[in-house]
Protein 1
Amino acid sequence: MNRSRTNLAVGFFVALGMAAVVFMALKVGNLASFDSSEGYQLEARFDNIGGLKVRAPVKSAGVVVGRVEAIYLDGETYEGVVQIRIRPQYRFSNDTIASILTSGLLGEQYLSLEAGGDPQYLNDGGRFTKTQSAMVLEKLIAQFLYSKASEGSGDRK
Amino acid sequence: MMNVLDLIEGLGASITGSLKRLGLLARFFINLLRVIAPMLKRVDLHIKQIYFVGVRSLAITIVSGLFVGMVLAVQGYEVLQRFGSVESLGSLVALSLVRELGPVVAALLFAGRAGSAMTAEIGLMVATEQIAAMDMMAVNPMARVIAPRFVASIIALPILAMIFSTAGIIGSYMVGVELIGIDSGAFWSQMRVSVDFRVDVLNGLYKAIVFGIAVGLLSVFEGYYSAPTAEGVSSATTRTVVISSLTILVLDFVLTVLMFRGLN
């Protein structure tokens, strides 16, 4: 075995391994798309967060602008508190509406931000004043049945 | 009455036997750790071993990875189309490969392909008294023979695991996107949404490093303490593959519980 050929093969092998890690980082994983230490933090409170999970995307107009960092329950108000981190280049006005939506019928839940018209911007640690809770299917069906029932009784009168 | 006592004695003997073996392994590991650091200067020895255990395992790893990825794509598609969410195929395949199958299957292949070869080689060196001869010449066989093989498997296995996962993802892309016809944009974007580099890829890499330590240690240990006969070498080789495979699977469970328990 010629040693320089061995060295060549091992060098090639290690380079291939590095290429695989880079492939994982850039193409498979989301390392390049968002660094979790960057950006500023905001907070939104919901009556019901549904199935929102940590690391879920935060989208505005469908574009990912940040990620959910932490979710916990406020023990006094019994509201679900969602902390999110927004990329530094995006700013949102004070009256931005934060709502929890689902991508597709069975897709994962994400936090949607609809920008308002207030000239004041939310700063690091700020809180959304207008939020819309996650849609719970059972409640929705109950509401639908209730409205159908009241519609039916209205017709009879 | 005697029969029962014989049975209990046999049980006791097998327990003491395996405990002795475990103690021997622990002492062997500590002796090995002592000689690793000064040996690292001998880069050429390590490169030669990485060539034997890593580069020579490349073909089997890539081919297996491709086929595992292809099968995952076909099976995943069958299930996902019932829920109308075939776009999630990318994330299903990537998560299962990066978190579990990449490190585990690469380590199992490594134990069969490289671990058994290391055991047989060292076992034959013991049987032909080459190890004893080295000792006579004041060359520490632990440092000269055992340590480079152990270090090489710790270096080679993580690389092989990453290559396995990459090959698997490429294989699932070929079947899922090119053959079945899932949208390529959805395939990659779903994958990127669900795979986190730090959580999923790096934990997979740590798993592979732990498996590398386990397989490397067991392979050189079984070889070093194999009976110096043809039969001894063959049974040591078998033990390496069997014990390594079981250790990999048990360690995988323990590591998975530790790593992914608090994730959601």
Note: Residues 2 and 8 of chain A are 10 Å apart (CA to CA).
Protein 2
Amino acid sequence: MMNEQEIVLKIENLSFRYEKENVLEDINLSVPKGSFLGLVGPNGSGKSTLLKCILGLLKPQTGTIYLFGTPISEFKDWHRIGFVSQKANSFNTGFPATVYEVVASGLTSKLGMFRFLSKKHRQAVIDAIEAVGMKPFINRNIGELSGGQQQRVFIARAIVSHPDLLILDEPTVGVDVHHVQNFYNMLDELNRHLGITLLLVTHDIGTITEKVTHVACLNKHLHFHGKAQEFAQLDSKELSQFYGHHLHVLSHDH
Amino acid sequence: MVEAIFQYEFLQNAFFTGVLIGIVAPLLGVFIVVRRLSLIADALSHVTLAGIAASLLLEKKFISSFLFNPFYMGMAFSVAGSLFIEKLRSVYKHYQELAIPIILSSGIGLSVIFISMADGFNTDLFSYLFGSVSAVSRSDLWTVLFITLGVIVTIFLLYKELFLLSFDEEHAVASGIKAKTVHFIFIILVALVIAASMRIVGILLVSSLMTLPVAASIRIARGFKQTIVFSILFGELSVILGLIFAYYLDLAPGGTIVMLAVLILLLVIIWKKWRRS
């Protein structure tokens, strides 16, 4: 059995460079089970690069990443990690698939080849749709939904296989401003009631710091890593140190 | 026609072959259309024509043998063409659609050369181009049945993977699906079905049986499974009615089937417009 203190994700002395210059330098980070970490940083701060390292898509030059205590090079249980990419809503909106079918497709890799959905799986699909509040739309075609609703469906697809860690990359891009709050409330539910550890990457430090349990500020280096309450107590001078001149443009709407 | 079917073996062959193709062509068509690969069927059908022309040439100039049967030869060319398309798609990563005109024109080019070497058109070739009710042999029917069963079983087994690959290729790859293998199997199925369909609808019209029923279905279906069901329904309707009309009015079956598919498509579009207003 896992204990509460299990470290879901641990990064040690990680540095990464595409060419000569380091994009990430000496990153140390640990995410305990059950936490909701907001990884914030301005554009070009290396957030996406760090995500790709965590997902095993890029290999850092130095340092090690541990997922559930296993070094990433030996990690096999990828179904324990759900990922909702920023580009999730750039799919072909004319695609004739219902919400149910899209969410069920999240079980594809867990099931493996030549296996079919059992009754239990079908219930898991319905539960995941319910968890993101999309039950009334279960038989609607995905293309008929709004951007925010589609994003919820993609989150349902990511959680249907019961991941222990859910990684979201800028999930509120394309979500109606008025629904962002709702959206964060839903993530909060997933975190509290389903116990899914969340890692949310965003450049928007406004709303997110109220919802998360932990904050990590990234701008090539990790400038702050701690509890959300501590982060909230930082004054704007300290904040602007992390963010540099980017701070004042952060809260504008997209 | 019902009595005629019991009476004449060639009608039985044509009818049952048509019914089988009415299932598999739209079935594969759904995956082709949603992946925006509609023209692949066209490219492959023209490569198939090159295979048929080659076999007709060999038959005329040299020897006729089981292996040079136009049906099998067309199928072999079609499968080879599909492999080339895949290769070209990876060569031109940013211009993937380029593979289609390259293969299509190569197919036509080869066909024209083979046809001219074989002293031009004859009725045999004509029936391959536009389909023919009388040209389907019993052994053709068995081959088509075999292909149909193979395609249905494969699609059934790979349904999850094909769905995810069509819907969201990036996610499919990220979640560890062997995208290349699945796509490779799929494209070979397409090549086989094209070769199987050409007897009835003809080379030039094969792709329409893969796209038109799907185009109609996608307008009204809710979800992917329903899209498949409606596509097969529309495909089957076009094929069966098309064969009946072609038989009684003495028309080329390929053209009749395709025009019925177009008619169904138009009716669906009009119906949808009417319902909305």
Note: Chain A touches chain B at residues 55, 57, 78, 83, 85, 87-88, 91-92, 94-98, 100-102, 105, 107-109, 111, 113-114, 116, 139-141 (CB under 8 Å).
